[in-house]
C-alpha cells in the first residue's frame, strides 16, 4: 500500500478548499466592485444635486437677465453665471485634503469605513433637508470627505487581497459615473430633488452591508514567534513611521505625475470647455448637449477602468500627452467652432474618458504589482492624492478660461 498516495478524504478536502477559496475570491471581487460604486456615487451625484438645490432653494438671481434655458447672456454666447468649475472645487478640495492626511494616520480600516458610511449618509441628508445655503454646501463637503477617505482606505486595504480587486474596484468607480448620472437624472424627473437624495440613502447602507457582510476579511491565525502569540501584534510591529512614509513619495512620483496630468487636462475639458461647445439646429438643445457629453465621458471612463485584465498599459505618460492634445483640439473648438459635426465631439469625449479611466486603473495596478509588499499599502494611499490634485488644479484653471471665452463673440460654425 502506497502511504504517499492521498486518500479519498484528502482529495475531497482539497476540492472543498479550492472551491471555497474560489468562492471567496469571487465574493471579494464583487465586494470591491460594489464598494467602488458606493464610494464614488455620492461624489458624482453631488456635482448635479448640489447645483440644483442651491438654484432651487437659495437662488436670488434676476430672471430678466436669463434666457428660457436659465443661462446668462454674455455678449452673444450663452454661459452659466458661475462656471461649473466652482462646484467642482467644492466637491474635490475636501477629498484632496483627506487624501493628503489619510496615509499618515493609523490604518484602522473598520473605523475608517464606519466614518465613510456615516459621512455619506449625513451628506445626502444635509443637502436634501437644508434650509440655509451653508448647510447644503456642508453636505457637499461631508460627502467629499467620505469619498476621499474611502478611496485612500480601500485602495490601501486592497493590498491584503488578490491584485485583481484593483480591477473590480476601478470598474465600480467607473460604474458610479454612469449609474450615478443616469439614476439621478431619472429619479429627479419623477421626484423632487430633496426626495431623490433621500432615496439615495440606500447607497451608504449598501456600502456598509458590502464591507461587513459580503467582503471576506483576511483571517490571521494565532502563532507563536519569539513569545508573541497573536499574528495581529506581529503585523503592527513593523508599521512605518511618518518619516518612512514621506520617504516613499519620491519613488511614487513616476506614477503620480502622469496620472495627475491626465486628470488636470481631463477635468479642464469637462469643467471649462464642455459648456462652451454648442451646435445649433440639431436634435439636442445646448443643455442636452452638455448632459450627453457628460454621459459619453462617463461611459468611456467605465469601459477603460474595467479593462486592466484585458489590456495593461505601463507608459501612463503617453496618456497625458494624448489628453493634452484633446485639450488643444477642444479649446480651439470653443474659440472657432471648426468641428462640423457633433458626433466628432462625442468621439473625442469618449476617447477622453477612455484615457482618464485607463490612466487611473493602470497606475494603481502597476503600484500593486511593482511596489514591494511592505510599502504597498501606504504607496496606494499616497498615490490617491495625485488625481485629486489634478482635478483641483483643473477647477481653478477652468474658471478664468471659461469666463474669458464667455466674453468673446460667438463664432459662426465652419461650413454652416
Summarize this entry quickly.
It is found in: Endomembrane system; Lysosome membrane. By secondary structure, this protein is mainly alpha-helical.
Global geometry: globular
Low-confidence stretches: 61-66, 68-75, 227-237
Q: Count the domains.
A: 1
Q: What is the helical fraction, as a range of percent?
A: over 70%
Strand order of the largest sheet: 1-2
Beta-strand percent range? under 5%
The CATH architecture name reads Up-down Bundle
Structural category is mainly alpha
Q: Total number of helical segments?
A: 13
- Give the C-alpha Rg: 24 Å
Return the CATH class: Mainly Alpha
The CATH homologous superfamily name equals MFS general substrate transporter like domains
Taking the alpha carbons of the first and last residues, their distance comes to: 90 Å
Sketch the major β-sheet.
Answer: 2 strands, antiparallel
What is the mean predicted local confidence, pLDDT? 84
Listing every helix as H and every strand as E from the N terminus to the C terminus, the arrangement reads HEEHHHHHHHHHHHH
Fill in the CATH topology.
Answer: Growth Hormone, Chain: A
* Tally of DSSP β-strands: 2
Protein name: Battenin
Family: Belongs to the battenin family.
Organism: Camponotus floridanus
Subcellular location: Endomembrane system; Lysosome membrane
